[in-house]
Structure formats: C-alpha cells, structure tokens
Amino acid sequence: MEIKTDLQAVDTSSLVEKVEEQLVDYLVRNNMRPGDAIPKEMELANLLGVSRTVVREAMSRLRMIGLIETKKKKGGVLANPDFIGILEKSLIPKVLDETTLRDLFEFRLVLEIGMADLIMARVTPQDIEELKSIVEVEPDISEDLHFNIEHETRFHGKLYEITGNQTLKKFQKLLLPLFDYVHRSGLLAKITPKTKYVSHKGIVQTIEHGSPELLRNAMRNHLENHFIRLFSE
C-alpha cells in the first residue's frame, strides 16, 4: 500500500545562517585577530550541536566574504577582509541597473568633494608638479567640453593617490568601470546651463594656494556639471 505524505525536505538555510552568526560572535568574543587559528570543523560542530555539513557551509560563507582563509599546516585562520575586493567582484556595470549605476556615480562625486581635507594635509610640492603636468595637455576652457574619460581618470586618480589612503585608492580603481559606463551612456553629453565652473587647472591652483574649504568649493563647482547632466530631466 502506497503511503502518501505531505512531508517536505527540511530547509537548513536558516540553520546555516544561525551558525554563521554564532561563528562571527565567537570570533568577536574571543578577541581574535588576523592570523589566529579557528577551531576545526568537527570541533565546532560538536560545540554547536549541528552537523559538520552545516558548519562547512557556514565557514564557506565566511571565506566568500574574506573573513577567514585556509593556511597550509594551520587550517582555518582569521583573515583581514578586503571589502573593496569583495565589492569589485560584484560591481559589473553590465549587470547593474541604471539606478544603481547612477547612485554609485553620485557617490563617487560626493566622495571626491569630501577628500579636500586629506588632499590639503598630505599634498607635496612634487604632487603639485605632477598635477600641473597632467592638466598641461588639457584644453584651457573646459566647461563647455564633453566628459573626457582619459582626462578624468588621470587627474582624479592623482587626487586619490595624494590622499595617501589605500582604501580610497582601491575604491577609485573599483569605480573605473563606472567612468567607462558614463562615457558610453551619453549621460554626460547633454548641453547644460552655464554655471560657475572650476576646471582641473583651477583645482590645481586651489590646492597650491588655497585651503580645504576653498578646495571643497572648487571640487563642488567642478563636479556640478556632472550632477546637472546626470540628474536633470
């Protein structure tokens, strides 16, 4: 006689999430630092009262976000997550919708305005000379010119370098595909109303002779055209 049942396979995904949370809590409570060894899977399974398969899946998730890594002859150890590297793997312009791409580009503009204090505190005479050599090959009048991806990446890349902040420098490289997206999309090819505009050369002059507040204003005026082109109807 055939016995029918409504029983379905047990969903263990929530259990894996709970174990993942427990593992992170364990790392924090034990004040573990990068390089410290993590208990073996079987030991963790016994401590948590779950199967080794569940622990392995939870550990796999932590590996994916860079929180743990496997070392030869040492097993699992706590790692120092490279969150920029994690973002880089998912930041693929071709699979992101236009709203997300616009949001990220807007974030880039706001970020660069906020870098003024770091730039002014850490810029060197050599940096200023390098900036001058970069802008020397750019047109004198640029407020009416369309977005030039080569000029943008060279000049703004140097500004990120001047900050001396390694995470900012990595983030700038992460955003390079967005520059290409914006360049190809035609979003920055719009004709915009005349606004107070500061060119790359004006920004260099401000860095050489100005203050953080003046540089913030200069960057805001420089980037305003991008905002207008991106978000005006």
Write a concise keyword list for the protein shown above.
62% helix; 3% strand; 2 domains; elongated; Four Helix Bundle (Hemerythrin (Met), subunit A); 2 strands; 233 residues; single chain; two-stranded antiparallel ribbon; Arc Repressor Mutant, subunit A; mainly alpha; 12 helices
Describe the model.
The chain is mainly alpha-helical. Helices cover 62% and strands 3% of the residues. A two-stranded antiparallel ribbon has the order 1-2. Helix 7 packs antiparallel against helix 8.
By CATH reckoning, the class of the largest domain would read Mainly Alpha
> CATH H level of the largest domain: which superfamily?
GntR ligand-binding domain-like
Structural class by sheet pairing and helices? mainly alpha
The separation of the N and C termini measures 70 Å
- Succession of helices and strands: HHHEEHHHHHHHHH
**Count of individual domains:** 2
How many helices? The count is: 12
Q: Mean pLDDT, as a whole number?
A: 80
Question: Any low-confidence stretches, pLDDT <50, length ≥5?
Answer: none
- Round the Cα radius of gyration to an integer and report it: 25 Å
Q: Sheet bearing the most strands, described?
A: 2 strands, antiparallel
**Spatial shape:** elongated
